[in-house]
Q: What sequence folds into this?
């Protein structure tokens, strides 16, 4: 039997990355004199993360922000941000303006989120699809913290931009998000004495046929966790203040009895790169 070293490398990048990763971990083990007990505890932790379905959460919490920064270097347009573990494909397709799917008694404050989608060359992008997902006003994501059957695609939709490249959705102000304490990711953070909070945010994945897909987040200014996101993903250009509206005439126009908030942001997508010949 020929050893793996003598076989022709099928995938040179995979081979190089794997050897570097294992080499880095072996050097780490030597540097810190990792004990056999610590090694076994690490294996048990990873096994628990897998068994509970928390591998995506754990990887995204500790590593995705770095992948995002490396992979978006020199990109141009609106800054990207991590996708995170709670994206669900296939959310309802809606036309702007619209109200995101919600429960009859959806808690919290109404938020009207509007924006323009344009290209880095300045052209507005009608027909772009703005895929939005967020936690509710109690910090819960549908399909993860709220059972799918109770509220399918709650606060999730794919919204098409209008002929001017604009969109407007009515949603609810999201709360800060705390990673569940009971699972392996939360227990690891607690064991280190670290908090498990992300500042309130809205996720977006914006696609258009001639543009590079933009995966990003909008963060709400003033959130208590804005400077200490457990994921380390906040970028200053993505932090936006809400405007409060409590004028009775404005409320009446929208059929609301409590104050509501608005947020506006323009999203800029780089042109799709020419296909390599
Ligand atoms: C989230 O809501 C999130 O957006 C990320 C990136 C990681 C954990 C929870
Ligand atoms: Fe999130």
A:
């Amino acid at each position: 039997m020929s050893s793996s070293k003598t076989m022709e490398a099928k995938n040179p990048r995979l081979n190089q990355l794997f050897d570097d990763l294992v080499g880095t971990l072996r050097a780490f083990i030597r540097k810190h004199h990792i004990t056999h007990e610590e090694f076994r505890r690490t294996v048990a932790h990873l096994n628990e993360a897998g068994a509970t379905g928390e591998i995506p959460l754990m990887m995204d919490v500790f590593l995705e922000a770095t992948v995002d920064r490396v992979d978006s270097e020199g990109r141009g347009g609106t800054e990207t941000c991590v996708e995170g573990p709670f994206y669900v494909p296939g959310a309802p397709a809606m036309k702007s303006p619209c109200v995101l799917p919600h429960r009859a008694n959806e808690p919290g404050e109404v938020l009207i989120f509007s924006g323009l989608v344009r290209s880095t060359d300045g052209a507005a992008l009608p027909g772009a699809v703005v895929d939005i997902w967020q936690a509710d006003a109690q910090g819960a994501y549908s399909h993860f913290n709220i059972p799918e059957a109770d509220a399918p695609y709650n606060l999730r939709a794919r919204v098409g931009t209008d002929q001017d490249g604009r969109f407007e959705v009515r949603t609810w102000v999201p709360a800060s998000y705390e990673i569940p304490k009971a699972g392996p990711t939360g227990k690891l953070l607690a064991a280190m004495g670290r908090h498990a909070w992300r500042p309130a945010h809205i996720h977006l994945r914006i696609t258009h046929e001639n543009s590079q897909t933009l995966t990003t987040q909008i963060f709400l200014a003033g959130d208590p966790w804005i400077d200490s996101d457990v994921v380390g993903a906040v970028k200053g250009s993505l932090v936006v203040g809400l405007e409060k509206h409590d004028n009775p005439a404005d409320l009446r126009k929208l059929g609301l009895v409590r104050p509501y908030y608005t947020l506006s942001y323009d999203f800029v997508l780089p042109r799709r790169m020419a296909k390599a010949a």
Summary: The mean pLDDT is 95. The longest strand covers residues 110-119. Residues 51 and 76 are 39 Å apart (CA to CA). The radius of gyration is 22 Å.
